[in-house]
Amino acid sequence: MLLEHFTSNHWYAAALAIFTWYILSSIIAWYRLRHIPGPFLAKFSYLWLARLALSGKQYETHLELNKKYGPIVRVGPYEVFTDDLELLRKINSTKSSYAKGASYSGSRLNPWHESLFMMRDPVAHDKLKAKLIYGYSGKETAGPEAAIDEQIMNLIHLIQDKYISKPKEFRPLVWSKTAGLFTLDVISRLALGQEFGCLKRDEDIHCFFDTLNDYLPVVALTTDVPWLRNIAFSPFFLQLFGPSIKDKKGIGKMMGLTNKVVEEFYHGDGQVKRDMLSSFKKHGLTKDECEIEAIFMFVAGSDTTASVIRAGMLYILATPHVYSRLKREIANTIREGRASRPISNAESLSQPYIQAVVYECLRIRSVSTNMSFKEVPAGGEFYNGAFLPAGTNIGVNFSGLLRSETLFGKDAHIFRPERFIEVDDKTSAKMKRDVELTFGLGRWSCLGKPIALMELNKIFFELFRHFDFQLAEPHQAMLFDSYMLFRDKGLVLRVTESDLEDL
């Protein structure tokens, strides 16, 4: 065999060659962005990103990065990270020549087909987005509001039936779990026309969140380290080790259910329905494309919105003046006849303080710690006199942006909804647009934004209309770590019936 002819000198030479190649490639990688400040390891390797991905501390680290190093920070050999709003608007504008970075392939679930989210080609992305937008907007469907209302009431009934505490009986509500059941039923109702029934059974029927939470550290690592990403999300690897429709639980199980519904829809009796699948098909999506977009809705639209609902509940309960004012505003709205059962989206939009609470819940903690890299096009980019060569990936510090003192005031780290109503209407509108950066910018903005906002416009109003809440474990109210998405644990609540329910 060939290896038999290798002497120890040959092996030493091979090892030396590999070592030399590594040193030279590291020097070259360091040199191209040597003028950008950042952590030492990030200047020439992916060790810093890898360590951060596995630490579960992405959120806390992101909050401090730009404070420590300035508006643009080097986080990898070819990666920088910024909280500069004007630069981000330029990168993400509809006329921008920037494309999505290669890290977006870390969202691949299907070995053969791309979802809209992972499409890097701006032209192909824009064409598919134009086909999907009608289904998300509700213009060609029965609209998402009725579906959301159904799940709101299912949530209310679940709490009334199982979690109302009495003076001598404590029935703990684990809000980190229940919030996820709500958003999962909303998304399944919208995507497939029928909710999974998680709220009615009070369980994550298909173990979606358990599976997602188990995978998140691995996904965070493989997404941020290119050579691992190229292996883990390759068609070959996904076929062998990725989620499968044969799985008995988790994302694979949901892929199987989704594919079955789409298959029946495309090869059924042809009955015209006013739902999202009908809209997608009407605008030319193939069966495979529908399957991919439907399953991605679960990943992108369930835990992200649930994260806002969890964090929002925590901050409301931990801020007495917000809790009491929110209850007063709800009571006044009901007495004045300005709230249906459940409150309509239009009614919620007309209530300044309700909207202030919704936007502060969105602002206080980003929905994700994904850096959403965009790739500098040919010719490079100048930023404050510093040159960023073509191929550099510029990431978005959503966490830092939403806590920016420049955008939201010196107390940006404090949960204070009043910031949106103590300024003039023009300033308030601008601040709300800045908060909506959490849904992405420009051509890359999230199609599910109207649905998420509608859920938030309704759920806090209805929860505090029907119930009073108390933190049962204030010393450790909610634990979390961050691996691109948040893994929230706890938030145990004591729930009693509210006298507002009778108004």
Written overview of the protein:
- By secondary structure, the chain is α+β, with helices and mostly antiparallel strands.
- The protein has one domain (33-502): Cytochrome p450.
- It has 22 helices and twelve strands.
- Helix 7 (175-192) packs antiparallel against helix 15, helix 9 crosses helix 10 and helix 15 (303-317) packs across helix 18 (352-364).
- The longest helix is centred in the N-terminal third of the chain and has 25 residues, at 8-32.
- The N and C termini lie far apart (86 Å).
- Belongs to the cytochrome P450 family.
- Heme binds at residue 446.
Strand order of the largest sheet: 1-2-8-5-3
Q: Care to count the β-strands? A: 12
Overall pLDDT metric: 90
How many DSSP H or I helices? 22
Uncertain regions: pLDDT < 50 for 5+ in a row?
none
Under the CATH scheme, which architecture would be assigned? Orthogonal Bundle
How many individual domains? 1
Would you state the CATH class?
A: Mainly Alpha
Indicate the CATH topology: Cytochrome p450
Largest sheet: 5 strands, mixed
Organism: Gibberella moniliformis (strain M3125 / FGSC 7600) (Maize ear and stalk rot fungus)
Pfam families: p450
GO molecular function: heme binding; iron ion binding; monooxygenase activity; oxidoreductase activity, acting on paired donors, with incorporation or reduction of molecular oxygen
InterPro entries: Cyt_P450, Cyt_P450_E_grp-I, Cyt_P450_sf, Cytochrome_P450_monoxygenase
